[in-house]
Input
Amino acid sequence: MYESFGLTQLISEPTRETEQTSTLIDYIAVSNVRNISKSGVVRTAISDHYLVYTVRKHVGGIERKLKLIYTRQMKNFKEEAFLWNLSAYDWSSNLYCFEDLNEVIEKWINMLSLIIETHPPLMQKRVSERYSPWLSSGLKDLLRSRDNLKIAAVKSKSEIPMAAYRQERKESK
Output
């Protein structure tokens, strides 16, 4: 069965031993044996069921994309100082000088943004995206849709949403 999926089974020793039987019940299957440096079974006295393990080699060449996100750290936000700055700002002299409503709104947004930027400031963080070349945005959307259909089917307890969920599940495999 593993060969049909292009997988190789690493564990060949028994993983559970009793006085009468010795069986291999735990498996580790990999698609590329060259990425594995060691695997095996650790016999313990705690149980008749042994521990299986594998050690993966460091595979270079996979670059993680860095993504920049912008957040505001609200931990030190001082509401009183923010409200004081809002009330102390001279809104009328800065807004009544325009005749066009669009200019007034644009100016108001800019003035408010200046105050917001100081309470608390916008911070830039670098985060790395997980490297999953097989997980495309289309597949993510399909899986999200499938999960939502399952939730709806369970809530409704009806066969029609369950049939839609089953169809979506077949398509997402």
